[in-house]
Amino acid sequence: MIATASVAQEQPSPTPPPGHDITQVDTAPLGGAIAVPLPEEESKRLRKYDIPELTGSHQAIGSQLIDGRLPRPLLDYSVESGKIVQRLSIFEGGLVVVSMHGAGGVIRKKLILPADALKSYLLPGEAPALRALRQSDLSLPAPGRIAKVRVYEFTGASREWRFDPASALPKPLNDVSMPLADLLRAMSEDRTVTSSVANYEPKMGDELIGDDRRTYRVARVTNEGVVELHCVGQPTIIYVDKKDLYNYFIGARGGQ
Known about the structure:
- There is one protein chain.
- By secondary structure, the chain is an alpha+beta fold.
- It contains four helices and twelve strands, in the order αβββββααββαβββββ.
- The strands form two sheets. The protein has a seven-stranded antiparallel β-sheet, with helices on one face.
- It has helices spanning about 40-50, 115-120, 130, 170-190, and strands at about 60, 75-80, 85-90, 95-100, 105-110, 145-150, 160-165, 205-210, 215-220, 225-230, 235-240, 250.
- A hairpin with a 5-residue loop joins strand 10 (about 225-230) and strand 11 (about 235-240).
- The chain starts with about 40 loop residues before the first helix and ends with a strand.
- The radius of gyration is 20 Å and the shape is elongated.
């Protein structure tokens, strides 16, 4: 069986920075997905426009250590609703990591924010009015539905507020949580800057996990940049332009 790859939420190819090999492609999580499914209207929009929240951001490829140590956490935002759990964490250096699991599989993504965007996300967390906000000032979370915002100090200490994500929030907390919720949504929809498969240079023998959760092995790359991939254990061959691989593959197979 020979199939031509296609995807409903295809996004335009990103401007290619220097390429990287399979060793810098993140391992695909078990039961992983590339992005949250989108309505057709949103899919069409994303083919034409960038996601504004991600403007100026770039891929988090390779080690993110700072002076040989892990970057310090700065902000956390999480939402739990039933079996769906979403979390966004911002670290020094502008590293943002998103983890989502529940309906539709597991999504893990990361990127680097530009300095001005990083500052805009952190500034509301430093407001005196937020520091004065007490947990007792907030509506109690509903059963099975809770959101949390955690702000870290330079010392490593942190302050946390728990609230119902569907309730009206005091302005100081809303000023922190709303931009983080928008960034979480944007990263969950993105298939370009948050994907380590973007700008990956395929080599024969590399193995990738597809959006169908099957393993595909690179058989050859043509001079025109078309990649021939064979499904491992299935008589399926697909052909994808290498600049579009991020639209079809979640990450590398573990153990490469």
